UniProtKB/TrEMBL annotation:
Cofactor(s) recorded in Swiss-Prot or TrEMBL: thiamine diphosphate; Mg(2+); [4Fe-4S] cluster
Pfam family, one: TPP_enzyme_C
Every Pyruvate ferredoxin oxidoreductase beta subunit C-terminal domain range: 203-264
EC number(s) reported in the record: 1.2.7.3
GO biological process: cellular respiration; small molecule metabolic process
Thiamine pyrophosphate enzyme TPP-binding domain location: 58-198
PANTHER family membership: 2-OXOGLUTARATE OXIDOREDUCTASE SUBUNIT KORB (PTHR48084:SF4), 2-OXOGLUTARATE OXIDOREDUCTASE SUBUNIT KORB-RELATED (PTHR48084)
InterPro entries: 2-oxoacid:Fd_oxidoreductase (IPR051457), OFOB (IPR011896), PFO_beta_C (IPR032686), THDP-binding (IPR029061), TPP_enzyme_TPP-bd (IPR011766)
UniProt-recorded Gene Ontology molecular function terms: 2-oxoglutarate synthase activity; iron-sulfur cluster binding; metal ion binding; thiamine pyrophosphate binding
Entry keyword set: Iron, Iron-sulfur, Magnesium, Metal-binding, Oxidoreductase, Thiamine pyrophosphate
Name this protein carries in UniProt: 2-oxoglutarate oxidoreductase, beta subunit
Superkingdom to which the source organism belongs: Bacteria
Length: 288
């Protein structure tokens, strides 16, 4: 029985689920719905923008506004949506390959731009949709379908990277602990600025190393950590085993959309406004 409540997907006569039994996407979705409930949000308050991959299919399996877009392109589309309607809770969502590889450039510049959106990365440390190739976060030495002799590239530490770039909010969770993950997600959504939440989740079909048991044995929840202390946050981010979970870093600053001239005098979303033809006409006459 699902615990999604009003976030149960509305797909009449359809039970087609692409995720494998036991997939980490299921508890991640439960945690996300729980975070929405904690914040008393309605499905119509939220828009989830996803890229490509098994993680990105979540927009079909949860009842909110949703847009399943192109590989690696969730962040710029989510930014544009927030700029056009600041009243929406906007979430960009994808896997570790989608966000850190195909979307890596957007990840970097999304941090710089600081739109008030939440970015969720499903980190299962493998490409699941395409059957088990090494991703940017696969561990050194792990044997995959395309690295049969073992991965030798250095895994990306996106938490440390985001902190060094002064990201506004940086956190990591593990979907095996739904309550803790939901609490992190609720704080990220409530945070004013670009909020990054990396979530460890097993891929039960194509990653036989990073299992539920592995994550339980190789992670811990940070205690007495000050997320306003950048150097302490970076020190925590560089820990490898066990891997820390929780909110690493908070850096409060003005979000992107508040700099936009369209909202200097009027906070109303663009779609709620009527065209001010006389004002446009005066602007053209005065400037051209």
């Amino acid at each position: 029985m699902s615990n999604l409540g009003e976030f149960e997907p509305k797909r009449p006569d359809s039970f087609d689920v692409s995720w494998c039994p036991g997939c980490g996407n299921f508890p991640l979705r439960d945690a996300l719905a729980l975070a929405f409930k904690k914040l008393e949000l309605k499905p119509t308050d939220i828009a989830i923008i996803s890229g490509i991959g098994q993680a990105a299919k979540i927009v079909h399996y949860i009842n909110t506004h949703g847009f399943h877009t192109l590989h690696g392109r969730a962040i710029p589309i989510a930014t544009a949506l927030k700029a056009s309607n600041p009243e929406l809770v906007v979430i960009a969502e994808g896997g570790d390959g989608d966000m850190y590889s195909e979307g890596g450039n957007h990840f970097l510049h999304g941090i710089r731009r600081n739109a008030n959106i939440t970015v969720i990365i499903h980190n299962n440390q493998i490409y699941g949709l395409t059957k088990g190739q090494g991703s940017p976060t696969t561990m050194i030495g792990q044997h995959t379908t395309t690295q049969p002799f073992g991965v030798f590239e250095e895994p990306l530490n996106a938490i440390a990277l985001a902190i060094t770039l002064n990201a506004s909010f940086v956190a990591r969770g593990y979907v095996g602990n739904i309550q803790h993950t939901a609490e992190i997600l609720a704080q990220a959504i409530n945070h004013k600025g670009f909020s990054i939440v990396e979530l460890f989740q097993p891929c039960v079909s194509f990653n036989k190393v990073n299992t539920y048991q592995w994550y339980s044995q190789h992670t811990y929840i940070m205690q007495n950590h000050n997320p306003k202390d950048k150097m302490q946050a970076l020190q925590k981010a560089l820990e490898n085993d066990p891997l820390p979970l929780g909110i690493f870093y908070i850096n409060e600053k003005i979000p992107f959309e508040e700099y936009l001239i369209a909202y200097k005098e009027d906070k109303k979303p663009l779609y709620k406004r009527s065209a001010q033809t006389e004002k446009i006409k005066r602007f053209i006459e005065d400037n051209f």
